[in-house]
Amino acid sequence: xxxxxxxxxxxxxxxxxxxxxxxxxxxxxxxxxxxxxxxxxxxxxxxxxxxxxxxxxxxxxxxxxxx
Length: 67
Fold this sequence. Notes:
Elements: H1 2-12, E1 15-20, E2 23-28, H2 29-50
Antiparallel strand pairs: 1-2
């Protein structure tokens, strides 16, 4: 079958396949790894930012050194 032949070709040429619905993207395995790492890093950064505490401070008048 064609999918086994495609897998063999991809493995021979050090390529990988990403499926998104009916679309298959063929990329070098290194590109796929880099995309996965970037996605992982973005998710970790988002998690860290969600844990930050936010505060709004209203200042009417003060010396700059006191803020």
